Amino acid sequence: MIEEKILAQCCHAVQKLYGHELNPASVGLEKTKKEITGDFTVVVFSLLKISRKSPETTATEIGTFLQQNMPEIETFNVIKGFLNLVLSDHFWMKFLVKNAVLPDFGFCKSRHEHPVVLEYSSPNTNKPLHLGHIRNNLLGFSLAEILKANGHKVVKVNLVNDRGIHICKSMLAYMRWGNHETPGSTGMKGDHLIGKYYVLFDKEYKAEIHDLIGKGLTEEEAEKQAPLIVEAQEILRKWEAKDPETITLWKEMNGWAYQGFDLTYRRLGVDFDHIYYESETYLHGKKLVMEGLDSEVLVQKEDGSIWADLRDEGLDEKLLLRADGTSVYMTQDLGTAQLRYDEYRPSSMIYVVGNEQNYHFDVLKKVLTKLGMEYGKHIYHLSYGMVELPQGRMKSREGTVVDADDLMDEMLRTAEETTRELGKADELSDEDATRLFNTIGLGALKYFILKVDPKKNMMFDPRESIDFNGNTGPFIQYTYARIQSLLAKASSAGFLWEDAKISLHLPLLPLEKETIKRLYQFRETIVQAGEELSPAIIANYIFDLAKGFNQFYQELPVLKEEDPEKVVLRICISKFTGSVIKKSMKLLGIEVPERM
User: Fold this and answer.
1) Tens of pLDDT, residues 15-74
2) Against a cut of 0.70, is the pTM above it?
3) Which domain covers residue 546, as residue numbers?
4) 303-322 core/surface letters (b: 16 or more CB in 10 A; e: else)
5) Which of 54, 115, 141, 514 is deepest in the core (most CB within 10 A)?
6) Of 63, 87, 111, which one is at a domain's C-terminal end?
7) Which residue, 53, 87, 121, sits at the end of a domain?
8) Distances, alpha carbon 147 to alpha carbons 41, 234, 239, 375, in Å
């Protein structure tokens, strides 16, 4: 890439001009600010001790050397200690012609290294997926695509939380009030049916707490002594003791949840290479804990509970096994990490989990390291913010969550209303129109969520996300469809740019050059998104590309241009832009329609 050549020549210039050997990494190189003429800027302040000259003189001398030794540099200007380099039109034309036809442009070659294990989704089998899960799944799937584009081998994994007191609550409510109903008898998705009983448990449990408080108990006492929670805890003990009747109901209800999850995943367009189940991994975690106790790395208290003492590392004591021998979340995460390490020997393990679990993952890494597992140092928690709606936060137990399936249905309806209002489906068959509404609705949902920095909390507004004129998925999808329409018209008119020779010496207008420069930035955008684990970098790049192309399209004639060489050039730019938009959107898990 040209940046590497500029850095190398800067080092050569310093050696020739000032007799000093320089490491390219010590040279400051950045994109030139929009308001200044230039493509790349060399920051020379760090070189003043070597040159022993003023910033302006140092920048001018290095700029002169670069212009004389690099044919790619047409001219330069100096503003204080900033050397702004202007690349020639010939360089940009050469880049365009060489890369516009490459199917893998922007992507890195496969690396010969151990895979990255990437965990996302991690649903509980006591309720359906909701809006928070949607952000989790979209982030995880997109990150996998971005890491692959950077040459990494990625193993996408899902840890299903299929055991614990929350599962027992749904089971107990079903045992009490279910009347043997099933997804088949009710017509409900299995995960929705189970979620119904989770909400019912919470309603009845709160009523019991209220009654006990009325009889003189404190709220804390009532929460512990309410008959429903006592019975749910007994079901958990029976489950861990492998009571046949309890296990049979547990398997049946979990099976309903899995069927429901699979339908949601398929509709959302996400998948996994391996699914782990907490009901299996916690046993491996218990084994690790007992080994840690035998080696005296962990401590056992008088009641029989086992703990990790992390006070010397800035944390506190962490419970790993309860006094009755039952496990906690940390137990199963220890076992899961070990299973993944044994199976894949990963270069790193990335967990896509909400920021309320920051402390949990700090502890996980430290406990694994304490147990002698060096891979604990290569665990990374992608801590993402919460999703809220205009009406506020969601609560699963109170049934106020936004169900993932309901949200996708709403997105489809909103996409249909908006698209029909704008007349963008008038010429489509019913089947094609339905497919378009689904593409637009899901594209709007995915883009609106992924364009936000993962670390930030966000507000999701379904109608705002389907705006054909803002920083939205539909705007970018429409830009892509516009390009395909242009290319179809060009082909009908006989302009086949692939077969035409584009002169590398054509002068470029500012809008032509700016569009080519944005296409050039696709490679570095993918690299940056991979390094920062942020699909938002890709999303906002595509928006800038689409917005810039629309200005290019509106201000410069393409098929009506009188110069045939310019027609072919602009068709080439359009084709390349469409290709990069499609690749970029695919990295976000978003489809683009050929017609709109």
Assistant:
1) 999 999 999 999 999 999 989 999 999 999 999 999 999 999 999 999 999 999 999 999
2) yes
3) 440-587
4) eebbbbebeeeeeeebebbe
5) 141
6) 87
7) 87
8) 29, 45, 39, 20
